[in-house]
Amino acid sequence: MSEKANILTASKKDALYVPVDALYTNNNEKYVVVASAGTSTDTGWNGWHAGQ
To answer: What is the mean pLDDT of residues 34-42?
Structure first.
């Protein structure tokens, strides 16, 4: 016998989903790594400051 279940731990209306791999913290400042057109996040990043 087996079961399938979904467990919702939190939700927020109109929130943007950001993969964990895109999160970056430096000196207690939080950033999201954003790839520029024609590049990947492995070659450099254009960080968005969480306070902006």
So the answer is: 66
